[in-house]
Design goal:
It is globular, with a radius of gyration of 16 Å. The chain has 168 residues and is of the alpha/beta class. Helix 4 links the parallel strand 1 and strand 2. It has seven helices and six strands, in the order αααβαβαββααββ. Strands 3-2-1-4 form a four-stranded parallel beta sheet. Strands 5-6 form a two-stranded antiparallel sheet.
């Protein structure tokens, strides 16, 4: 059943996610947005694994990572320099505890629309599997001002310069 516009609008707010993650508890996963690692693996193989293999030690940032297993899946592929950011303090605390003994995955509470604490040009690969989508609600032809503001701030945080990802 499709989500109502009011429900979709709440997805862009940390309070919604804090409640959602707290309600489920730390021993269960809330969800995996859109696709699992197995679903994405053929795409990732062509566009990431063959181009930026783990031997190149790229710094990967997971934007709005939630409780996704993708960082652990990347780690199993040999990617050992990952930063997972999410604006939900509940999920960051939960996942930080889960990954306490996991070298190569770090967690930071941050809003992807304003990431001043991450140094410019410090990231090689940005991974977003559903964060931008969660900010969009309403009509695609006449999006509400909140959608334009949220998505605009998110997009302005990152820009491409030739083939190098640059963080503002």
């Amino acid at each position: 059943m499709p989500m109502s516009d009011a429900e979709s609008k709440r997805l862009a707010h940390a309070e919604y996610w804090n409640h959602r993650y707290a309600e489920v508890g730390s021993d269960k996963q809330v969800h995996e947005w859109f696709r699992s690692f197995n679903d994405l693996e053929p795409f990732l193989d062509r566009h990431l694994f063959q181009i930026r293999g783990p031997e190149t030690a790229p710094k990967i940032i997971h934007l709005g990572s939630g409780d996704s297993t993708i960082p652990q899946d990347f780690l199993r592929r040999g990617y050992k320099n990952q930063l997972c950011v999410d604006f939900s303090s509940v999920v960051v605390e939960t996942m930080s505890k889960r990954d306490t003994d996991t070298e190569g995955i770090n967690w930071k509470q941050a809003d992807v629309r304003e990431m001043d604490q991450i140094p410019s040009e410090s990231v090689d690969i940005a991974f977003d599997k559903g964060t931008l989508d969660a900010m969009v609600h309403g009509s695609p032809w006449h999006p509400p001002d909140e959608v334009l503001d949220n998505t605009g701030r998110y997009i302005r945080e990152a820009r491409w310069n030739d083939t190098q990802f640059r963080w503002h």
